[in-house]
Write a structure and sequence with these properties.
By secondary structure, the chain is an alpha/beta fold. It is built from 15 helices and ten strands. About 55% of the residues are buried.
Length: about 325
Protein backbone atom coordinates (compact mmCIF):
# COMPACT_ATOMS: atom_id res chain seq x y z
CA UNK A 1 0.00 0.00 0.00
CA UNK A 2 1.15 3.50 -0.85
CA UNK A 3 0.88 5.80 2.16
CA UNK A 4 -0.60 9.18 1.31
CA UNK A 5 -1.67 12.49 2.79
CA UNK A 6 -4.56 14.05 0.87
CA UNK A 7 -4.57 17.86 0.85
CA UNK A 8 -7.99 18.88 -0.43
CA UNK A 9 -10.58 21.64 -0.86
CA UNK A 10 -13.91 19.84 -1.44
CA UNK A 11 -15.35 20.73 -4.13
CA UNK A 12 -17.48 18.29 -6.13
CA UNK A 13 -14.52 16.92 -8.06
CA UNK A 14 -12.67 16.45 -4.76
CA UNK A 15 -15.55 14.31 -3.51
CA UNK A 16 -15.08 11.94 -6.46
CA UNK A 17 -11.33 11.83 -5.84
CA UNK A 18 -11.76 11.28 -2.10
CA UNK A 19 -14.12 8.36 -2.63
CA UNK A 20 -11.59 6.70 -4.91
CA UNK A 21 -8.79 7.29 -2.39
CA UNK A 22 -10.85 5.94 0.51
CA UNK A 23 -11.87 2.82 -1.38
CA UNK A 24 -8.67 1.81 -3.14
CA UNK A 25 -6.69 -0.99 -1.47
CA UNK A 26 -3.54 0.38 -3.09
CA UNK A 27 -3.65 3.44 -0.82
CA UNK A 28 -3.44 3.99 2.92
CA UNK A 29 -4.66 7.49 3.71
CA UNK A 30 -2.70 8.65 6.74
CA UNK A 31 -4.41 12.04 7.05
CA UNK A 32 -6.58 14.58 5.32
CA UNK A 33 -5.58 18.23 5.33
CA UNK A 34 -7.92 20.96 4.15
CA UNK A 35 -7.29 24.24 2.38
CA UNK A 36 -9.40 27.07 0.99
CA UNK A 37 -10.20 26.92 -2.73
CA UNK A 38 -13.52 25.68 -4.03
CA UNK A 39 -15.01 27.33 -0.94
CA UNK A 40 -13.72 28.77 2.33
CA UNK A 41 -11.50 26.49 4.39
CA UNK A 42 -14.29 26.18 6.97
CA UNK A 43 -16.78 25.04 4.32
CA UNK A 44 -14.24 22.76 2.65
CA UNK A 45 -13.49 21.14 6.01
CA UNK A 46 -17.20 20.61 6.70
CA UNK A 47 -17.59 19.07 3.24
CA UNK A 48 -14.72 16.68 3.91
CA UNK A 49 -16.25 15.64 7.22
CA UNK A 50 -19.52 14.98 5.46
CA UNK A 51 -17.83 12.73 2.90
CA UNK A 52 -16.04 10.79 5.64
CA UNK A 53 -19.23 10.38 7.64
CA UNK A 54 -21.16 9.18 4.59
CA UNK A 55 -18.38 6.69 3.89
CA UNK A 56 -18.31 5.54 7.51
CA UNK A 57 -14.67 6.53 7.97
CA UNK A 58 -13.91 7.94 11.41
CA UNK A 59 -10.39 6.52 11.65
CA UNK A 60 -8.47 9.06 9.56
CA UNK A 61 -7.36 12.32 11.20
CA UNK A 62 -8.43 15.62 9.65
CA UNK A 63 -6.37 18.81 9.95
CA UNK A 64 -7.59 22.24 8.89
CA UNK A 65 -5.08 24.44 7.10
CA UNK A 66 -4.71 27.75 5.30
CA UNK A 67 -7.68 30.03 4.72
CA UNK A 68 -6.07 32.31 2.12
CA UNK A 69 -3.05 32.52 -0.20
CA UNK A 70 0.36 33.28 1.25
CA UNK A 71 0.63 36.86 -0.03
CA UNK A 72 -2.62 37.68 -1.80
CA UNK A 73 -6.25 38.08 -0.80
CA UNK A 74 -8.50 35.15 -1.61
CA UNK A 75 -10.59 35.45 -4.76
CA UNK A 76 -14.06 36.81 -3.97
CA UNK A 77 -16.75 34.17 -4.22
CA UNK A 78 -14.20 31.36 -4.15
CA UNK A 79 -15.22 28.94 -6.98
CA UNK A 80 -18.97 29.34 -6.45
CA UNK A 81 -19.62 29.79 -10.18
CA UNK A 82 -18.59 26.14 -10.64
CA UNK A 83 -19.03 24.42 -7.26
CA UNK A 84 -21.84 26.52 -5.76
CA UNK A 85 -21.68 28.58 -2.60
CA UNK A 86 -21.40 25.42 -0.49
CA UNK A 87 -18.71 23.75 -2.63
CA UNK A 88 -21.10 20.87 -3.31
CA UNK A 89 -22.93 22.22 -6.33
CA UNK A 90 -25.65 23.87 -4.25
CA UNK A 91 -26.57 20.57 -2.59
CA UNK A 92 -26.83 22.06 0.90
CA UNK A 93 -29.53 24.56 0.00
CA UNK A 94 -31.38 21.96 -2.05
CA UNK A 95 -31.53 19.61 0.93
CA UNK A 96 -32.78 22.28 3.34
CA UNK A 97 -36.58 22.65 3.36
CA UNK A 98 -36.16 26.37 3.96
CA UNK A 99 -33.31 26.69 1.48
CA UNK A 100 -30.98 27.72 4.30
CA UNK A 101 -27.64 26.56 5.61
CA UNK A 102 -28.03 23.59 7.93
CA UNK A 103 -25.34 21.47 9.55
CA UNK A 104 -24.83 19.12 6.63
CA UNK A 105 -22.44 16.88 8.56
CA UNK A 106 -24.78 16.02 11.41
CA UNK A 107 -27.71 15.76 9.02
CA UNK A 108 -25.96 13.04 7.01
CA UNK A 109 -24.77 11.04 10.01
CA UNK A 110 -25.16 11.25 13.76
CA UNK A 111 -21.48 10.41 14.11
CA UNK A 112 -19.15 13.21 13.04
CA UNK A 113 -15.43 12.82 12.27
CA UNK A 114 -13.40 15.28 14.29
CA UNK A 115 -10.96 17.98 13.23
CA UNK A 116 -7.64 17.69 15.05
CA UNK A 117 -6.33 20.70 16.94
CA UNK A 118 -3.22 21.07 14.82
CA UNK A 119 -2.49 23.06 11.68
CA UNK A 120 -2.37 21.12 8.43
CA UNK A 121 1.20 22.22 7.62
CA UNK A 122 2.49 20.84 10.93
CA UNK A 123 0.60 17.59 10.37
CA UNK A 124 2.19 17.24 6.94
CA UNK A 125 5.67 17.69 8.41
CA UNK A 126 5.08 15.16 11.19
CA UNK A 127 3.57 12.55 8.87
CA UNK A 128 6.36 12.82 6.31
CA UNK A 129 9.16 12.60 8.88
CA UNK A 130 7.48 9.72 10.70
CA UNK A 131 8.20 7.57 7.63
CA UNK A 132 10.88 9.27 5.49
CA UNK A 133 10.75 8.27 1.84
CA UNK A 134 7.41 6.49 2.15
CA UNK A 135 4.72 9.18 2.27
CA UNK A 136 3.22 10.82 -0.82
CA UNK A 137 1.28 14.07 -0.71
CA UNK A 138 -1.73 14.24 -3.02
CA UNK A 139 -2.23 17.99 -3.43
CA UNK A 140 -5.72 18.40 -4.87
CA UNK A 141 -6.15 22.09 -4.06
CA UNK A 142 -4.15 25.28 -3.75
CA UNK A 143 -0.58 24.51 -2.69
CA UNK A 144 -0.58 26.84 0.33
CA UNK A 145 -0.46 24.13 3.02
CA UNK A 146 2.31 22.22 1.24
CA UNK A 147 4.32 25.43 0.74
CA UNK A 148 3.94 26.31 4.43
CA UNK A 149 5.20 22.85 5.41
CA UNK A 150 8.24 23.25 3.12
CA UNK A 151 8.91 26.75 4.45
CA UNK A 152 8.74 25.60 8.07
CA UNK A 153 10.93 22.57 7.39
CA UNK A 154 12.71 22.48 4.01
CA UNK A 155 13.79 18.91 4.82
CA UNK A 156 10.31 17.79 3.83
CA UNK A 157 11.44 18.02 0.20
CA UNK A 158 13.99 15.24 0.67
CA UNK A 159 11.85 13.19 3.03
CA UNK A 160 8.64 13.03 0.98
CA UNK A 161 8.20 10.20 -1.52
CA UNK A 162 6.51 12.48 -4.06
CA UNK A 163 4.10 15.40 -4.31
CA UNK A 164 1.33 14.77 -6.82
CA UNK A 165 0.07 18.19 -7.91
CA UNK A 166 -3.39 18.52 -9.41
CA UNK A 167 -2.86 21.57 -11.57
CA UNK A 168 -0.94 23.06 -14.42
CA UNK A 169 -1.44 23.18 -18.16
CA UNK A 170 1.43 22.77 -20.62
CA UNK A 171 -0.03 21.61 -23.94
CA UNK A 172 -3.57 22.94 -23.41
CA UNK A 173 -5.09 26.26 -22.23
CA UNK A 174 -5.75 26.89 -18.55
CA UNK A 175 -9.18 27.00 -16.95
CA UNK A 176 -8.98 30.42 -15.26
CA UNK A 177 -6.82 32.11 -17.90
CA UNK A 178 -5.34 31.18 -21.24
CA UNK A 179 -2.29 29.70 -19.51
CA UNK A 180 -3.10 28.96 -15.86
CA UNK A 181 -5.21 26.60 -13.77
CA UNK A 182 -7.10 27.59 -10.65
CA UNK A 183 -4.93 25.84 -8.07
CA UNK A 184 -1.72 27.51 -9.24
CA UNK A 185 -3.22 30.84 -10.29
CA UNK A 186 -4.82 31.45 -6.89
CA UNK A 187 -1.55 31.16 -4.96
CA UNK A 188 1.35 31.25 -7.44
CA UNK A 189 3.89 32.07 -4.72
CA UNK A 190 2.99 28.85 -2.89
CA UNK A 191 3.21 26.91 -6.15
CA UNK A 192 6.65 28.40 -6.83
CA UNK A 193 7.86 27.36 -3.37
CA UNK A 194 6.72 23.79 -3.99
CA UNK A 195 8.17 23.50 -7.50
CA UNK A 196 11.48 25.09 -6.47
CA UNK A 197 11.83 23.00 -3.30
CA UNK A 198 13.62 20.02 -4.80
CA UNK A 199 10.83 17.63 -3.87
CA UNK A 200 9.88 14.96 -6.43
CA UNK A 201 6.83 16.41 -8.19
CA UNK A 202 4.31 14.74 -10.48
CA UNK A 203 2.09 17.24 -12.30
CA UNK A 204 -1.36 15.91 -13.14
CA UNK A 205 -2.85 18.89 -14.93
CA UNK A 206 -5.37 19.71 -17.59
CA UNK A 207 -3.20 17.97 -20.18
CA UNK A 208 -4.73 14.75 -18.89
CA UNK A 209 -7.74 15.94 -16.87
CA UNK A 210 -9.41 17.28 -20.02
CA UNK A 211 -9.32 13.76 -21.46
CA UNK A 212 -11.02 12.03 -18.52
CA UNK A 213 -14.81 12.15 -18.77
CA UNK A 214 -17.13 9.97 -16.71
CA UNK A 215 -19.79 9.01 -19.24
CA UNK A 216 -23.58 9.31 -18.84
CA UNK A 217 -23.75 5.51 -18.62
CA UNK A 218 -21.19 5.50 -15.83
CA UNK A 219 -23.03 8.27 -14.00
CA UNK A 220 -26.19 6.19 -14.28
CA UNK A 221 -24.38 3.25 -12.74
CA UNK A 222 -23.23 5.45 -9.86
CA UNK A 223 -26.79 6.68 -9.34
CA UNK A 224 -27.95 3.09 -8.81
CA UNK A 225 -25.64 2.58 -5.83
CA UNK A 226 -27.24 2.23 -2.40
CA UNK A 227 -24.27 3.93 -0.72
CA UNK A 228 -24.95 7.27 0.92
CA UNK A 229 -21.43 8.36 -0.03
CA UNK A 230 -22.01 7.59 -3.70
CA UNK A 231 -25.42 9.26 -3.60
CA UNK A 232 -23.78 12.35 -2.10
CA UNK A 233 -21.49 12.50 -5.12
CA UNK A 234 -24.32 11.87 -7.59
CA UNK A 235 -26.45 14.67 -6.17
CA UNK A 236 -23.56 17.14 -6.00
CA UNK A 237 -22.57 16.26 -9.56
CA UNK A 238 -25.85 17.59 -10.88
CA UNK A 239 -24.87 21.13 -9.90
CA UNK A 240 -21.35 20.69 -11.29
CA UNK A 241 -22.65 19.48 -14.66
CA UNK A 242 -25.06 22.39 -14.86
CA UNK A 243 -22.18 24.79 -14.27
CA UNK A 244 -19.98 23.08 -16.86
CA UNK A 245 -22.76 23.20 -19.44
CA UNK A 246 -23.55 26.84 -18.63
CA UNK A 247 -19.90 27.85 -19.06
CA UNK A 248 -19.47 25.82 -22.26
CA UNK A 249 -17.01 23.28 -20.81
CA UNK A 250 -19.16 20.30 -21.79
CA UNK A 251 -22.22 19.71 -23.94
CA UNK A 252 -25.63 18.71 -22.52
CA UNK A 253 -25.18 15.17 -23.85
CA UNK A 254 -21.79 14.63 -22.21
CA UNK A 255 -20.96 13.16 -18.82
CA UNK A 256 -18.76 15.04 -16.36
CA UNK A 257 -15.09 15.70 -15.65
CA UNK A 258 -13.90 15.40 -12.06
CA UNK A 259 -10.57 17.19 -12.45
CA UNK A 260 -9.15 15.97 -9.13
CA UNK A 261 -9.85 12.34 -9.97
CA UNK A 262 -6.80 11.71 -12.20
CA UNK A 263 -4.40 12.84 -9.46
CA UNK A 264 -5.69 10.17 -7.09
CA UNK A 265 -5.82 7.66 -9.95
CA UNK A 266 -2.12 8.35 -10.56
CA UNK A 267 -1.38 7.36 -6.96
CA UNK A 268 -3.48 4.21 -7.38
CA UNK A 269 -1.97 3.16 -10.73
CA UNK A 270 0.75 5.27 -12.36
CA UNK A 271 0.76 2.87 -15.34
CA UNK A 272 -2.45 4.55 -16.52
CA UNK A 273 -0.39 7.63 -17.44
CA UNK A 274 2.38 8.63 -19.80
CA UNK A 275 4.67 11.40 -18.61
CA UNK A 276 7.82 13.32 -19.43
CA UNK A 277 10.30 15.13 -17.18
CA UNK A 278 10.69 18.88 -17.47
CA UNK A 279 11.98 21.91 -15.62
CA UNK A 280 8.84 23.78 -14.56
CA UNK A 281 8.80 27.34 -13.31
CA UNK A 282 5.73 29.14 -11.96
CA UNK A 283 4.97 32.67 -13.15
CA UNK A 284 4.44 34.94 -10.14
CA UNK A 285 4.98 38.47 -11.46
CA UNK A 286 2.78 39.03 -14.49
CA UNK A 287 -0.96 39.24 -13.89
CA UNK A 288 -1.51 38.24 -17.51
CA UNK A 289 0.28 34.91 -17.10
CA UNK A 290 0.02 34.50 -13.31
CA UNK A 291 0.29 30.87 -12.22
CA UNK A 292 1.47 29.56 -15.59
CA UNK A 293 3.51 26.35 -15.56
CA UNK A 294 6.38 27.22 -17.88
CA UNK A 295 8.02 23.96 -18.95
CA UNK A 296 11.52 23.50 -20.40
CA UNK A 297 11.72 20.02 -21.88
CA UNK A 298 15.44 19.89 -22.69
CA UNK A 299 16.76 21.00 -19.32
CA UNK A 300 19.19 18.81 -17.40
CA UNK A 301 17.63 20.09 -14.17
CA UNK A 302 14.09 18.74 -14.41
CA UNK A 303 12.00 19.22 -11.28
CA UNK A 304 8.71 17.61 -12.31
CA UNK A 305 7.28 14.66 -14.14
CA UNK A 306 4.48 16.04 -16.31
CA UNK A 307 1.62 13.71 -17.19
CA UNK A 308 0.76 14.17 -20.86
CA UNK A 309 -1.47 11.22 -21.71
CA UNK A 310 -3.82 8.88 -19.88
CA UNK A 311 -5.82 5.71 -20.46
CA UNK A 312 -9.07 7.55 -19.74
CA UNK A 313 -11.28 4.55 -20.44
CA UNK A 314 -9.45 2.38 -17.92
CA UNK A 315 -9.36 5.19 -15.35
CA UNK A 316 -13.09 5.94 -15.46
CA UNK A 317 -13.90 2.23 -15.45
CA UNK A 318 -11.77 1.75 -12.32
CA UNK A 319 -13.42 4.71 -10.61
CA UNK A 320 -16.96 3.67 -11.54
CA UNK A 321 -16.42 0.08 -10.46
CA UNK A 322 -15.10 1.00 -7.02
CA UNK A 323 -17.43 3.87 -6.17
CA UNK A 324 -20.62 2.27 -7.52
CA UNK A 325 -19.87 -0.83 -5.41
CA UNK A 326 -19.90 1.08 -2.12
CA UNK A 327 -22.59 0.04 0.31
Amino acid sequence: MKQVIVDTDPGVDDVAALLLALNSPELEVLAFTTVYGNASVETCTANLLRVLAANGRYDIPVYRGAGKPLLRPASPGWASHIHGSDGLGGLTAAESPAGGQEDRVTRSNSLVPEVADRHAALAIIESVFAQPGNVSILALGRLTNVALALALNPGVAAAVREIVVMGGAVTVPGNVSQVATANLHEDPEAAAIVYDSGAPIVQVGLDVCNRVTVSPAQLQRLSESSSSATQLLVKATSGLRDAYIRTGRIGPEEGVRYNDLPAVAYAVDPALFSSRPALVRIETHSELTRGQTVASWDSDDSNAEICLDVDAEALTALFTERVSALG
